[in-house]
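Lab notebook, bench 4. The sequencing result for the construct came back, and we need a structural model before the next group meeting so we can plan mutations. Quick request posted to the team channel:

Model the 3D structure of this chain.
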Amino acid sequence: MELTRAQRIAHLAAAGNRYRLEGRPTLAEPLLREALELTESEFPGDRDRLAGALNALGLLYKDLAKYDEARACYERALSLLNSFPDSQRADVATLYHNLGGIEHARKDSAAAESFARRGLEIRRASAPADDSTLAGDMVALAAILDGQGKFDEAEALYVVALGILKKDPVANARELAVALNDLGANYARRDRLDEANTQLATAVELKTRQLGVQHPDRALSLNNLGFVHERQGDIDRAAELYAEALRVFEQSLGHDHPKTRDCRRNYERALAVSSRM
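Done. Here's the predicted structure in token form:
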């Protein structure tokens, strides 16, 4: 049976989002681009549908480090939703959250913090205090604050968010792993290395169970854990972790992705230190 246009769009979007969540963004891109193009041509007046397609493509572009393209998608989606009633405010909060993530990746900490705080403010106005999406907004803001050296405020947000997510650790497994990873990175920056090791090792364990060994999100935690071992003086273990993370980044994101380049620098530094010991 031939698919309707709406079914075709839904099929493309589902497949593209699945590839993105599996850590295979290059496979997701043509599918999500086509889904948006069909949505624009077939449903030009459906703002909710268009905003969803734009947001999905924006998330994918961020994974691919195409930050300008991602921001353009989010801003266009936000302009579509600005005239929606209050019932759509959760979608607006999500877009501010995502815009904060883009500016954080682009190292514009002031813009990142402004967007993230706005998203959290909107979410708090409508979401229950124990909402997992609210916890995700807290973690996102905390990561931005970490980058500015606002470690105490960031830690407080992580602790509150973890308290929410741990109420249902199975349903919130992915968000929980992200929060543990980011809290571990916070501790590592403050030389609280034993605490950092504990949080990051748990994040790696969760991501391994949920995402598999070849997922770039797991590689991110391996890279962070390698940094902790390096700071603790265990250079050989650090090099092993960096090497494993680097293999995954190269396979899933490519040799020139910022995460791949950062991990490669870490690995080469560890090898250089090891050779002098």
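The longest helix spans residues 193-211.
Will bring this to the meeting.
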